[in-house]
Amino acid sequence: MRRDCLNRNDDQYMTSMYCEAQVNGEPIILILDSGSSRCVVSAGFLKKAGIQIDRPLTVMMVGVHGKQRWPIGEIDRFPITVGGKTIMSRAVVTEAGNYAVIVGND
How many domains does the chain have? Predict the structure, then answer.
């Protein structure tokens, strides 16, 4: 598993809870964030995984540092596979560049 999918050095990489996963066969480091209310995916990774956005999203997001952002859109059935089990989750699409997928409490 490549550790550069978070675009961070090893010291910062180890600060988040994570696991190895796949989305549409693409291996990722899945960040587990109990403080996030939604599953969030970067637009760059979405393109790499060959998944289309289902619709625009008109709800403002508030990031971890309190900064408000407009997401690009939403996906109704985003397939995340961990340990051979696939779940479908709704996912918000952002322009973030420092992660592929964050799973929240949804």
Answer: 1
Look up the pTM and report it: 0.77
| Each residue's pLDDT tens digit, 39-54 | 999 999 999 999 999 9
Q: Range of 64's domain?
A: 3-103
pLDDT of residue 29 exceeding 80, the answer is yes
Residues 6+ positions from 86 with CB-CB distance below 8 Å: 79, 80
Query: CA 39 → CA 16, 68, 94, 96, 101, distances in Å?
Result: 15, 17, 11, 13, 7
Q: Which amino acid is at 73?
A: G
Kindly report the CATH number assigned to the domain that includes residue 76: 2.40.70.10
